[in-house]
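Ops channel
N.P.: pipeline sanity check, posting one input/output pair.
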């Protein structure tokens, strides 16, 4: 169970702070809910049941786990599906599973596909762009919070550390 002030990863909103726990006035329900404030959406509010049976929220990774994850990025596999419909389903599942490794896999897959298409003189595919953007938003938001750096600096931080690892 989370407590007020905890930061959590929400499967659709990214990093959120738990600002309240209790019943909300939505009829006669006796269910308790977490009231979440998305860190990167000042006007947003999310309610999710405390019993959380669908794993809508999870504890953030630690700073140490984030540093290890960055080091392991080159070894994380891409999504190896050639069928476009299946790929979109895999992308969607990667986002819904709310796990950093799956976001990295999605980002690497989309980035590689886009780079190949651009080299061949083709346009990028909207599905790749859309899902990659969402995965980056979730991943970079979580890394920013746990590593205590601005979200817009995360991409550079990751690249810098990957370049150092590969040197």
């Amino acid at each position: 169970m989370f407590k007020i002030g905890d930061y959590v990863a929400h499967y659709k909103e990214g990093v959120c702070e738990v600002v309240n726990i209790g019943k909300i006035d939505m009829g006669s329900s006796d269910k308790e809910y977490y009231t979440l404030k998305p860190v990167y959406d000042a006007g947003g509010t999310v309610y999710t049941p405390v019993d959380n049976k669908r794993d809508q929220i999870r504890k953030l990774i630690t700073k140490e786990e984030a540093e290890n994850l960055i080091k392991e990025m080159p070894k994380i596999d891409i999504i190896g599906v050639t069928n476009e419909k299946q790929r979109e389903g895999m992308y969607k599942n990667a986002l819904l599973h709310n796990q950093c490794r799956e976001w990295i896999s999605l980002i690497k897959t989309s980035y590689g596909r886009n780079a190949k298409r651009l080299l061949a003189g083709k346009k990028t595919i909207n599905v790749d762009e859309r899902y990659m953007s969402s995965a980056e938003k979730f991943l970079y938001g979580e890394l920013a919070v746990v590593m205590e750096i601005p979200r817009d600096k995360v991409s550079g931080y990751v690249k810098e550390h990957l370049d150092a690892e590969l040197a």
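N.P.: looks fine end to end. The beta strands are 7-10, 14-22, 33-38, 46-49, 57-59.
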